[in-house]
Design a protein that fits this description.
Strand order of the largest sheet: 3-2-1-4-5-6-7
CATH superfamily: NAD(P)-binding Rossmann-like Domain
Largest sheet: 7 strands, parallel
CATH architecture: 3-Layer(aba) Sandwich
Radius of gyration: 17 Å
Helix content: 25-40%
Number of helices: 6
Distance between the termini: 53 Å
CATH class: Alpha Beta
Shape: globular
Amino acid sequence: MNKPQKVVVITGASQGIGAEIVKAFRKRDYRIVATSRSIKPSDDEHILNIAGDIGDPATAQRVISEAITRFGRIDTLVNNAGVYIGKPFTEHTIEDYAAVMNVNMAGFFHITQRAIVEMEKHASGHVVNITSSIADAPISGVYSVLAAMTKGGLNAATKALAIEYAKKGIRVNAVAPGIIKTPMHAPENHDVLGAFHPIGRMGETSDIVDAILFLDSAPFITGEILHVDGGQSAGH
């Protein structure tokens, strides 16, 4: 009997790292459920794109429900959606705080809770959280309190969930990137940003994608926070 085609749900999937994650899993013949605020419908019958605010529980419910209706199962969830607002701590507004918490924390909580419910039905599944190296390796001059608070929280949640669901066949891991070349960073800043990494350059989106794919294919790894940051988390 043929094995069923695997299904991955990817948040923050319309551009940058998220868009590359979609391409990579599709090349591996996964069926894809991709979501972001601005994502457009796909012409590929194996890709279901759903637009919405990932911090809204109604969006999370719609993504998971439509994934099950269309494809029948969820094997992997990649929590890639994230917001970074760089300001001195005392200059953050309540709107800044709400925006970061909405995507980085509520966006993780609602969809992960619903995805794990479906994974439990098959006693298998994998959750990958995209966090940040800056959560445990702050850099002088880089304003990162809200990022550290939320992404650090995801690192802690990764380990807690990994232990809670280890005996239920569900793995939970994280990838903690350094500074990656995406549309967020103007090319004229690449040299300066690359210097924050001991390796001396910025990361590529492919570096993060490769780490996700590795963890997804490593059944004896759970509770791991894999730093893909050119040595940034090791020290300077």
